[in-house]
Design goal:
Length: 74
């Protein structure tokens, strides 16, 4: 197996592990924000950053998988 495949698999597995480990914490923060109407916008920032990070991780993962198929099939 070439290095690009290992980088892709490592990125996906490690990223999924990090996101899964942070999921419960983000669920608690969202529940807290929903239950307290007087919460400032600063309390929602970690949740927004987590969503943005998850989206970027997904886009990069898709790009790496497509790139692996392009390099190995071509």
């Amino acid at each position: 197996m070439d290095m690009l495949l290992w980088i892709t698999l490592g990125f996906i597995v490690i990223g999924f592990g990090v996101l899964a480990s942070m999921k419960k914490s983000m669920e608690r923060k969202v529940a807290y924000i929903k239950s307290n109407k007087e919460v400032t916008k600063d309390a929602a920032k970690p949740v927004i950053w987590w969503i943005m990070g998850t989206t970027v991780w997904g886009i990069i993962s898709i790009f790496l998988v497509v790139w692996c198929f392009t390099v190995n099939m071509g």
